[in-house]
Amino acid sequence: MLRRKLSNTEFRFMQGLMALTDMFYHYVPARAKCFGIEPGMSVVDYGCGPGRYTVEFARLAGERGKVIAVDLVELALEATEKRLRENGISNVELKLAHGYDSGLPQGTADMICAVDMFHHVDPIPFLKELRRISKPDGLLVISGGHQTRRSIKESVASSGLWELSRETKRCMTFKIKP
After folding, report:
1. Where are the alpha helices (DSSP H) in the chain?
2. Domain extent at residue 122
3. Which H or E run includes 139?
4. Cβ partners under 8 Å of residue 138, min gap 6
5. What are phi and psi of 59, to 5 degrees?
6. I need a surface site. Which of 115, 125, 126, 148 has the fewest CB within 10 A?
């Protein structure tokens, strides 16, 4: 079970804080760029929130690439859709998740990005779903400031499904464990 799904009120509050932050700190494009998204990739933005990163991921994946923005909160997908329209982005599909079921086909993603959301999940069922929707050589990028890196690495390692392949100041990248 999810640790806790955001209510609509909590989502709106979070969205407002993010908008305020983005007015003063323009780090989203640089942070997204360091994840390693390349043109033509299939990228899942899991826990997309209001789509701040979705737009950047779509730009990086390019016209031949595809981004799937997944969230549990319908308001998040509505906000993401609005942001995509405002930015003229058309290579994004929106997907409402139900618990840990993303509804995506097996082997969908070259890369799954979980930005500032890992603290909301029970790691084992979440990481199992991410493994299922990942291509065999797919990558998982986790970037979050609400848990220590040590805690995230321990949670991911305990799943037995993913292993750390790269760590930078802005994110950790995991590959599927053989």
Report:
1. 8-24, 28-33, 52-61, 74-86, 123-133, 149-159
2. 8-176
3. strand 134-143
4. 109, 110, 111, 112, 175, 176
5. -65, -45
6. 148
Say which CATH number the domain at 159 has: 3.40.50.150
Q: Which residue has the higher pLDDT, 100 or 18?
A: 100
DSSP element (H, E) containing 67: strand 66-71
Question: Is 93 inside a domain boundary?
Answer: yes
Q: What is the pLDDT of residues 113-153, one digit of tens each?
A: 999 889 889 999 999 999 999 999 999 999 877 788 999 99
* Span 11-70, pLDDT tens digits: 676 666 666 676 666 778 888 999 999 999 999 999 999 999 999 999 999 999 999 999
Of 152, 164, 165, 94, the closest CA to residue 126 belongs to: 152
Question: Average of pLDDT values for 79-91?
Answer: 96
Residue 84 counted as domain residue:
yes
Q: Are 54 and 83 in contact (CB under 8 A)?
A: yes
CB 177 within 8 A of CB 138: no
**Residue at 114 is within a domain:** yes
Rounded (5°) CA angle 160-162-164:
120
Beta bridge partners of 45: 69, 113
- Count up the domains in the chain and report the number: 1
Nearest CA among 100, 141, 139, 101 for reference residue 120: 100
